[in-house]
């Protein structure tokens, strides 16, 4: 195989796996125009269209899907071989693709990026923040981070945090104006910050439990969002009651008195955050190093208290 043939096939795999010419070009260190030319050369050599392109998406054609299925495992095997050779020298390199919930990105991944880069400067972390629970196998990710109750089947799971407390919170100003709810049913008389589920667009029904009695409440209010920062900001500004994971910055705001918890005796907890990956015989060394970083294991156990994990 000529070097140009290999480069064309590598470019094709990169576009399919990233579903974007721009992201693939960035990964390969090429300009989008150069990448497009490379794909055209490959299609001309093969004599078939390999990618269906629109203004919003890129997907393999029938011929492209057949080609991808045959060559992608070979590229993955080569990547593993290179990573193992690099590991033997004590230097890791390559790209690790992670699909993560926003709460995990903010509270676990982002604070540790610098430490990971310091120890493994030749590793590229390709991190996609995704609250829609995408299939990491279909998306060609090395691993995902999710709440434990939403893990995909047939996956190896590593706990990153203890269970997560859910809290209903409002600003002192809002409670002074509107009063404090005493039961979940009282929420129907209050303005609430709704949460839109990205997987299907529905509004999340707030969950509560007390002495074995479990309730789900559909709420209404002036703001609907799928982003925690918007919901928390709306609550801070007195627009209504919000319902979030306590870990996602809310705990600090409660301690500062900027938010007040309501319905505390009805609070529930959800399974903690887990990193998960396909059940393969060989776990990539890069992924093992990333897990060590998230759990603050050596050599990443400096400058920051260990993450709570069990």
Characteristic terms for this protein:
alpha+beta, elongated, five-stranded mixed beta sheet, Arc Repressor Mutant, subunit A, about 300 residues, single chain, D-Maltodextrin-Binding Protein, domain 2, four-stranded antiparallel beta sheet, about 20% strand
Compact description:
Helices cover 38% and strands 22% of the residues. With 310 residues, it is α+β, with helices and mostly antiparallel strands.
Characterise this structure.
- This protein is an alpha+beta fold and 310 residues long.
- Among the domains are: 1-73, Arc Repressor Mutant, subunit A (Orthogonal Bundle), CATH 1.10.10; 164-270, 3-Layer(aba) Sandwich (D-Maltodextrin-Binding Protein, domain 2), CATH 3.40.190.
- The chain is 38% helix and 22% strand.
- The chain has helices spanning 3-18, 21-28, 32-46, 62-88, 102-109, 113-119, 172-178, 228-236, 246-255, 285-294, and strands spanning 51-53, 58-60, 94-100, 123-129, 143-147, 155-159, 164-170, 193-195, 206-210, 213-217, 223-225, 242-245, 260-262, 269-270, 273-278.
- The chain has a five-stranded mixed beta sheet.
- A hairpin with a 2-residue loop joins strand 9 and strand 10 (213-217).
- Helix 2 crosses helix 3 (32-46).
- The longest helix is centred in the first third of the chain and has 27 residues, at 62-88.
CATH topology of the domain at 164-270: D-Maltodextrin-Binding Protein, domain 2
* CATH class value of the domain at 164-270: Alpha Beta
CATH homologous superfamily classification of the domain at 164-270? Periplasmic binding protein-like II
Biggest sheet strand line-up: 4-3-5-15-6
What does the main sheet amount to?
A: 5 strands, mixed
Q: SS-based structural class? A: alpha+beta
Mean of all residue-level pLDDT scores:
87
From the spread of the alpha carbons, the general shape counts as elongated
Could you tell me the number of beta strands? 15
Q: Which strand-content bin applies to the residues?
A: 15-25%
Poorly predicted runs are: 303-310
- Number of helical regions: 10
């Amino acid at each position: 195989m000529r070097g140009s043939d290999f480069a064309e096939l590598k470019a094709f795999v990169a576009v399919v796996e990233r579903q974007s010419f721009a992201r693939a070009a960035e990964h390969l260190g090429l300009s989008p125009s150069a990448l497009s030319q490379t794909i055209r050369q490959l299609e001309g050599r093969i004599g078939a269209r390999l990618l269906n392109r629109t203004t919003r998406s890129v997907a393999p054609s029938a011929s492209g899907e057949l080609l991808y299925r045959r060559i992608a495992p070979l590229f993955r095997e080569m990547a593993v071989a290179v990573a193992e050779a690099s590991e033997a020298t004590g230097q890791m390199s390559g790209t690790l693709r992670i699909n993560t919930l926003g709460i995990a990105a903010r509270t676990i991944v982002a604070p540790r990026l610098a430490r990971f880069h310091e120890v493994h400067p030749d590793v590229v972390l390709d991190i996609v923040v995704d609250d829609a629970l995408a299939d990491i196998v279909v998306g060609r990710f090395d691993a995902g981070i999710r709440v434990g109750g939403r893990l995909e089947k047939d996956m190896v799971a590593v706990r990153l945090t203890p269970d997560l407390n859910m809290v209903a919170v409002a600003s002192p100003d809002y409670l002074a104006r509107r009063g404090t709810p005493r039961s979940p049913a009282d929420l129907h008389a209050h303005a609430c910050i709704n949460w839109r589920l990205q997987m299907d667009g529905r509004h999340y029904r707030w969950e509560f439990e007390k002495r074995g009695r479990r309730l789900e409440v559909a709420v209404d209010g002036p703001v609907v969002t799928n982003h925690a920062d918007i919901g928390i900001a709306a609550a801070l500004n007195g627009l209504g009651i919000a319902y979030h994971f306590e870990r996602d910055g809310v705990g600090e705001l409660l301690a500062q008195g900027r938010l007040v918890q309501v319905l505390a005796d009805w609070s529930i907890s959800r399974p903690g955050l887990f990193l998960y990956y396909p059940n393969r015989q060989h776990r990539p060394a890069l992924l093992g190093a990333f897990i060590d970083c998230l759990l603050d294991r050596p050599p990443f156990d400096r400058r920051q208290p260990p993450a709570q994990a069990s």
